[in-house]
Amino acid sequence: MPRDLESAKATLDAMPPLSKEPTASSSSPPPDHPLPLYRVPTTFIEDRFKKMKDLHPYALLLSQDDLDECDWLEHAAFEPHEAASREKLEYRLSVCGELCSGLFSSGYATTSGKLGELIRSRKFPSIDSSDSDRRKVLLGHVIATKHTAPVVTDDSMDFAKDWKTKYQLAPPVGHNEDGETICLHSLGVHPNFQGKGLGKVLLQGWTQRMRDAGIGKRIALICHEQFIPFYEGAGYTKIGPSKCQYGGGGWFDMVLEFDEAPKGDLDF
Ligand SMILES: CC(C)(COP(=O)(O)OP(=O)(O)OC[C@H]1O[C@@H](n2cnc3c(N)ncnc32)[C@H](O)[C@@H]1OP(=O)(O)O)[C@@H](O)C(=O)NCCC(=O)NCCS
Prior knowledge:
This protein is of the alpha+beta class. The chain is built from 8 helices and 7 strands; from the N terminus they run H-H-E-H-H-E-H-E-H-E-H-E-H-E-E. Coenzyme A (COA) binds next to strand 4 and helix 7. Residues 117-259 form the N-acetyltransferase domain.
């Protein structure tokens, strides 16, 4: 017999005989699994994603086509004196929509829970012309522009009212394509879906996209004091009180420099 077949025969001879009865070792699940193996879930969901799992959120770039949805969301998420006007949103989505992100879900009027309730309360756009009853729902958005100042200023938050008729390459107010500071002006999640981790996911994904795009040196934002830990957790650093008087003032400057090693909770 060739030598390799001899070794195969030796291996077979050493194996226990086949039997229909389960052996002692296979009759009980391994100690790590209190359930029989066929009942152990094959997908694992981290705790931080469990609250949002029925929403199946996905992120997309925004454009002026999303104006109605962003206007609706902005005024649902922010107090009236802090919400950006429809005109300002139209400006930002038109001139630099690629700096903005939307977090969406989709569903039907028959969908259960808060998503279905919302879909029944307002006409959302259809997600697909072949399934016009399936609605695309904006859960949250990030709206941003670029500016030359190293922090967010009142000028960066403003916009030239004649922007539609008078194009300016480097306007003193509003979006400046040559600016190296990406200014985050709005981060909002619809009140029905706050506290589920969507704000964190949206901020984390958008921040990473801006870093990878290589279109600026830093991100700057202003926020109220209670949100400082939220942004610090995503790697932003508190600079100090902001000079911005937008919405009555009382803001803090926060900045994330791209050339510094990432800070904060990387699992954020
Ligand atoms: C801020 C906002 C975007 C957070 O989105 P969210 O989906 O509710 O937040 P998450 O569920 O991802 O939670 C993120 C963290 O922010 C904290 N947070 C959320 N809302 C907060 C608030 N009003 N005050 C203080 N902390 C808050 C949460 O405690 C959470 O921290 P934790 O994970 O340690 O518990 C959302 O609450 C919102 O749209 N608020 C109104 C608009 C606004 O003020 N935005 C600007 C912030 S400068």
